Amino acid sequence: MLTAQFLLLGAVLFCIGVYGVLARKNAVMVLMSIELILNSVNLNLLAFSVRHGSVDGNTFALYIIAIAAAEVGVGLAMVLLIYRNRRTIALDDLSEMKG
Amino acid sequence: MPKVPGLLKGLGVTLNTLKRTTIDGANTVQYPHEKEAPPVRARGVIALREDNCTSCMLCARSCPDWCIYIEGHKELAPPRRAGGKPRQVNKLDRFDIDYALCMYCGICVEVCPFDALFWSPEYEYSEPRIADLLHDKVKLGEWMETVPEAPALEAGAEKKGKK
Amino acid sequence: MTSTESLIDRRQLSYIAAQAADARLNVELETEGMTLNIGPQHPATHGTLRIIARLDGEQVVWAEPSCGYMHRGYEKLTEVRTYPQVTALVNRIDWLGSFANEVPFILAAEKLMEIEAPPRAQWIRTILFELSRIANVSLFLGDLGVQMGAITPVFMAFRDREYVLNLIEGATGGRFHPNFDRIGGLKDDLPAGFIDETRVVMKKLRNFCDEMENLLFGNEIFQSRTRGIGVIPKDVAMQYGLSGANLRASGVDWDLRRDQTLPMAWNKVDWKVWTHPDGDSYARCWVRLQEVRESTRIVDQLLDDIPSGPVMAKVPRIIKVPEGEAWVSTENPLGEMGYYVVSKGDLGPFRTKIRSASFNNISIVPWVLKGVYVPDIITILASLYFILGDIDR
Amino acid sequence: MNAALLAADLPYWAQALLRVLGGVVAVLLPAGTIVYVFLFKMMSFMQSRLGPMEAGPYGSMQLFAEVGKWLQKEDITPERADRFIFKIAPLVVLVSTFLLVAVVPFGPDAWFTNFEAGVFYMLAVSSVSVLGILIAGWASANKYSLLGGLRAAGQLIAYELPMVLAVIGVIIQAGTMNLQDIVLAQNAGSMFGWDGLGNPYILTQFVGFIIFMIAVQAELTQTPFDMPIAESELVSGYMTEYSGFRFLTFFIAEFATAGVFSLIASVLFLGGWGIPFAWFGWDTMDSVDNWMNVVGPLIMVTKMMLLSFIIMWVRFSYPRFREDQLQRFAWKVLVPVSLVNIMITAILKVAF
Amino acid sequence: MSTDAVAAIPGDTLRERIVDDLRSAIGDALLDSLVKPGDDVWVRVRTDAWRATGLALRSLGFDYFCFLSAIDWMPSPFGKGEDDPTAPAPERDDTIAQGYAGGETRMQVLARVVHPTLHVGVNVKCDVPDSEPVVESWIPVFAGANWHERETHEMFGIGFAGHPDLRNMYLPSDFEGHPLRKDFPLLARIVKPWPGIVDVEPLPGGSDDEEGDAE
Amino acid sequence: MLAADLLVAQNIGFGIIALLMVVGALRVVTVNNVVHAALWLVVVLSGAAAQYLLLSAEFVAITQVLVYVGAVMVLFLFGTMLTRARIGAENDLNNKNWKIAIPVSLLMLGVMSWVIVDGFRDEKLIENPGEMSQVPIQLISDDIFGPYLLPFWALSFVLLVAVIGAIVLARKD
């Protein structure tokens, strides 16, 4: 197994995630794309963890998973709030930050 | 939140029933294998004693569901006493009860002045086709075998002859 | 708007507020409104009642029962039938307590004819009346469990109700639809052995009531599901004409068996009218449970001293009821069941208004369902206890 | 089932096949037994009736009749449903069950996998079924189903937390997350210096056990926590639109999961495949006699039946909660109590 | 115990007093009344005083709403559906005769309210004008009248002014006709002839007046 | 088992899973139904968990399943179903600059792949794959509660804030 194969997979996922963030209009879809990006980062972390024979990568992967959970929680709460006030979750329509 | 006693009592009831069913047997009956006898008065099916029927139409007229069909004709019967005039009697041609319509109210049995109709507790006569629930006079006559004696009455009842 | 109406509105509002305070997790996610059709084929509406509920999340914004799936037009049908035929018909209104349906109709006809059944007939009528109440309400107790997810009570209810039905069948010949009452008395006397059997069965039913109390009423989950749910205040209950246990659970001490003089045997024995001050679902269920117990007591006492004598008064063979109007209502298992019979001197009634208990009891549903949660719809409907035939007639 | 036992002699593919077969047996056998013994017979007896009696002696073949009936039923998909998701949803639920059984140890060498983080894995995998239920509810294009699915999701997430927290007490006491080691720790343990009984954690972690069983009841959506399928409210919740084979899949998953959770509970709290007084002083996994690989599974099945009995007994006796009461119960009672339990366990662990 | 309650059940004097109280409350809107001894009390009020009567009764303590319905006093033109369809239609008496407490119109609205502590009820009737069958709604008086009025509207075609929604309760919304009106035929009695019409066929050639000695 | 065997098996496994993940990820950003996208994301995340297992990070893999598949995705589905999850395709999920997004992300991919390939060439992940063993959980916990305790505290605080924030945001009043 090569280091590069994991890193390349991570890169592909990352770019797909970036595309999703840029191209998607629906707030939930954007959040999902962010999850893709976070996962690609995790993949890199773990690959390097193995590469260097240290567990630090594992630790930080765990931290990232926890952060992702928190992010999704808050993000979805915001989406619901926006939806409640405006009956839409299309981000383009949200030009102002009023509740 | 929940206090324990009420919840445990509920478990006790089901466990008790489980115990009782195991020891004393269930309250249900394995139907096709064993059957419970219906009470004597049970209104299962109407039986016809054809000899008594004079096709007077009273039952058909008083049926709330109009489910009794009677056809008959008059006919001369030999005189009862020798030398008498030949009697004119009503001869029954058709006596059908449509059990798909019947609501088992028993009015026809009650109004019959000649004791031609009886209740039988027999209940197993369901049919896959609804048209087969129309019982003709032959079939109704066959039910006569299953008609039981009227039950004894509870103490204190005024004895009276069967009407 | 009168002042009472605004009072009701205020109560309704505070009720909604209290319910909303109980919101799950205290976090309400507002969702798109949704219309939920409960019924006509739905396991919770024992029969074919349909409830159209407008929901916000799981909270009911507006609910309306839609009945008529079982309308048989009995009021019209009575106009083309003779009095004995109508008796067979009205059996089918509240099919769980059939015998009790016949009694007020027969009493109304007897009132118009100004005859009275002999005492023995009155006694037997009362006994069978109470037996049908037991058969009806014990099924309610079992069904209550099913509506709330407990599957065992219903089997116990069916088990013990079967004994009562056996008694009714043994006496009348009809398990569900006795058609045993006649104008002027009864069709027949009791068969031998009825009294002893009934005593045994009444003991079993008291035992059944204890079981229900332990299995269901004492259960904390059941209590938390029913207490404070679907509160109907006294004055609202009266306005909507609720009757029976539903009215008594709202604290109105009114029982037609006690509070009117009818040629029946209730006032000859010692019994108690149970009321409950709360007016919630639990109160309604609890009052019914006590009523089953009380009914077994009534039956036991009546069995002790059945007068002897005939069971039929002298009536002509062809019954023509004199001209007039009469209203008779009795305390049926479901509540006040009354017949307003208008006679023109014919073989059959000219017009019969059937005042069935469930129609009034269920007409409060739009009021009481406002602001409750979907699971509470079921609890409240179950505790109001209706029979479809009794609503639609 | 004893795949690991034969591992030395068998090629890779044969081992894998054996494990798969063992897994199928370990899922279907308990499910079938639970359905027949408890759902058919015990429930009937508790309701004063006999239950199925026609198929086979005492209706023992009834289950096969039912399976046959379901299999030959038409597989109906609602017209407006999301077909693909509708079809895979029951399989997701079933997969969760199969993944769960993979960590359960049945004997010293009778296991499918021996994860280091077995308990953790079990908790992770059990949450996958939520996904299946949620998409089953959504894809049915039915309001009752959707409500049922949402309720299930809310409930299963709410009760996963108490379950995790209840298990943590055991983990602290055993000092390991490996299920096999937890079994060993219980049976080789001692109480107040007396090791005759071992140290089944049901005694020391009684609070944890109760919370775990309540959470299991909720995870399995059995009464009093069966709002997602709530017969009288939501018809059949997320299962409303399913028929035939796919309903059977849900059905198997439900009862197999009950069995698997009972197995896990008996591993965590009842000493797993060991029993008191029959633990002959073994103190490491290697020292356990080989015959335990045969007796162990039997002991496990016995314990599973015992715990399933309790689960089903409660199911047949209680009415159900309301959704908000259930959530309140989870967050305001179970979570705090289990946190206190963890605290006390940790303190005692450090103290002794 | 029940004996006290029985003693408290009011007699006819109470009923008469109720009628007097009602008369003083609504004045000459009370057209007619009937106190049947030992039975019940009927009053008939003017159509325009229908709601006022309800309010007056409430203020008299009649808080319990029992039912509301209507009566069509026209004799049915179809009889009991037991006529021979081949024979010419029989003559029927079609005079409209109202019942207790009189009346002037074909249809009357009938309601019953009860005093919850005195345990005495009052049957209130009011004529429904033939030309425009509308009376006032009782919903402001008794909220429970809602469904009863809907039912009455559906069955008799009587309108209730002030009722928020007089949808059909039982029948489909596009159903035509008002089933409980006497001129609405009961189809079940029309599509099938009465089996009682068919009589025993006479003896061919024999005269009918000759009676046999049987039975 | 031979190390070479393992290497082949792992590489095949990696290939299959990676393919699934890439397809899944592409579907996530292109499919026009929110729930379908979420389910494709589940495929990607489960694939990621499998990759973690290959990378001998058992604990992280299980956490991935527990948190992502069991909780985050359920939350996603829950949220979408509460708002607008319709059955069938929706057309307006992409915004108007999706055409620009494609070259942007392709460019990024190109740059990154060039860097990765250039930087690592055929460097092995680990010299002797047979030595690869699962990371003991104890080491991770020593790591968390040792040198990285401060981030752990910070994380706990973030989680607490997130919980409170989510509740405050989603509350009705």
From TrEMBL, chain C:
InterPro entries: NADH_Q_OxRdtase_suD (IPR001135), NADH_UbQ_OxRdtase_49kDa_CS (IPR014029), NDH1_su_D/H (IPR022885), NiFe-Hase_large (IPR029014). This is Unannotated protein. Keywords: NAD, Translocase, Transport. It holds the Pfam family Complex1_49kDa. Belongs to the complex I 49 kDa subunit family. HAMAP family: NDH1_NuoD. One of its GO terms (molecular function) is quinone binding. Residues 148-318, 319-393 form the NADH-quinone oxidoreductase subunit D domain. SUPFAM superfamilies: HydB/Nqo4-like (SSF56762).
Automatic annotation (TrEMBL), chain D:
PANTHER family: NADH DEHYDROGENASE SUBUNIT 1, NADH-UBIQUINONE OXIDOREDUCTASE CHAIN 1. GO terms for molecular function: NADH dehydrogenase activity. The keyword Manganese does not apply. Its main location: membrane. It comes from freshwater metagenome. Keywords: Membrane, Transmembrane, Transmembrane helix. It holds the Pfam family NADHdh. InterPro entries: NADH_UbQ_OxRdtase_su1/FPO. The lineage of its organism: unclassified sequences, metagenomes, ecological metagenomes. GO terms for cellular component: membrane. The chain crosses the membrane at residues 20-40, 84-107, 119-141, 153-174, 201-220, 247-275, 295-317, 329-348. The keyword Transmembrane applies. One of its GO terms (biological process) is aerobic respiration. This is Unannotated protein. It is a multi-pass membrane protein. It is found in: Membrane.
UniProtKB/TrEMBL annotation, chain E:
Residues 43-186 form the NADH:ubiquinone oxidoreductase 30kDa subunit domain. GO terms for molecular function: NADH dehydrogenase (ubiquinone) activity; oxidoreductase activity, acting on NAD(P)H. Keywords: Transport. Transmembrane segments: none annotated. InterPro entries: NADH_quin_OxRdtase_su_C/D-like, NADH_UbQ_OxRdtase_30kDa_su, NADH_UbQ_OxRdtase_CS. PROSITE patterns: COMPLEX1_30K. The keyword Secreted does not apply. Belongs to the complex I 30 kDa subunit family. This is Unannotated protein.
Automatic annotation (TrEMBL), chain F:
It holds the Pfam family Oxidored_q3. Keywords: Membrane, Transmembrane, Transmembrane helix. InterPro entries: NADH_UbQ/plastoQ_OxRdtase_su6 (IPR001457), Nuo/plastoQ_OxRdtase_6_NuoJ (IPR042106). Gene3D superfamilies: NADH-ubiquinone/plastoquinone oxidoreductase chain 6, subunit NuoJ. The chain crosses the membrane at residues 12-30, 37-55, 61-79, 100-117, 148-170. Coiled coil: none annotated. One of its GO terms (molecular function) is NADH dehydrogenase (ubiquinone) activity. This is Unannotated protein.
